Model the fold of this input.
Amino acid sequence: MKILSVTIPCYNSESYMRKAIESVISGGNDVEVIIVDDGSTDRTAAIADEYENRYPDIVKVIHKENGGHGDAVNSGISTATGIYFKVVDSDDWVDENALKRVLTVLKNSVKANAGLDMLLTNFVYDKAGVRHKKVMKYNRALPKKKVIGWDENVKFNKFQYVLMHSVIYRTEMLRNCGLTLPKHTFYVDNLFVFEPLPCVERLYYLDVNLYHYFIGRDDQSVNERVMISRLDQQIKVNKMMIDFFSENKPENKRLYKYMFQYLDMIMCVSSIMAILSKDDKLLEEKRKLWEYLKEKDEDLYKSLRTTIFGIWMNLPGSVGRFFSKLGYKVMQKVFGFN
Done:
């Protein structure tokens, strides 16, 4: 059995997918690489088949009708035979030395029957044209090289979030928690991280820079201009997260706090994109989002509305929106996101 299944969703990725695939193949026979051709119209399918022919014991290819990033991830989860599961987007890649260390930890965990549900690693904001790349670490949030539960010195601060780039989940746990990402929807990576968390009992942090998150393509979904144009998708995911958290609040206090902080950040992202747009229609959608939260769970609304982010994103009038944008630009400089 493979230790780690890595799904690489690909849609018209012919110009950059090879780097992603080859970085994961470096893990050798311990990895299963699942390339999902999500209805591509360029040479993506042919390149995927080429790798499957070259590495039949490592690479599997799924050709499917276009269903979006989330649907490609769903296909990977349902197909995976590895004990653990990770997603690597086709324009990103992993560090080969770090991958070897990750595989060692996972193999040792399986041998020790440690019950590891989630492994976290660092990721690098690999922004085009920037010499000094920002590395997102969890060394102040989690003890290193230790399988722990949520009550054992887990201290995520307001700016430390588990992203798809940093997480590896146990495959069986993902299936058992019932995760199914919506089709034709952007920003589902937040759901991929968020919804399984109540099922995570044991976690481990390995302080290596595994994932390189490329930022620089004009058509990337995280590009600010693109995010504004797809704000309806961001808000759709945001509402799904509200629904899930409202209906699945964990009893563990530290896990509750972390998931609350995560939802707080996503409310902030949705709100600031509407503010940056300067579009009255999108500003109205922001208002409706907060109203949706209030109608769904008034206690949760009151709690989120009075956080720093909740206050900051709802400062009144044009002057308030000016200071909201100013704060966002400062955060952008500090953390290096797009």
Summary: The first strand starts at residue 4 and ends at 10. The first helix runs from residue 17 to 25. Strands lie at 4-10, 31-38, 59-64, 84-87, 93-94, 118-127, 134-136, 167-170, 203-215. The chain has a mean pLDDT of 93.
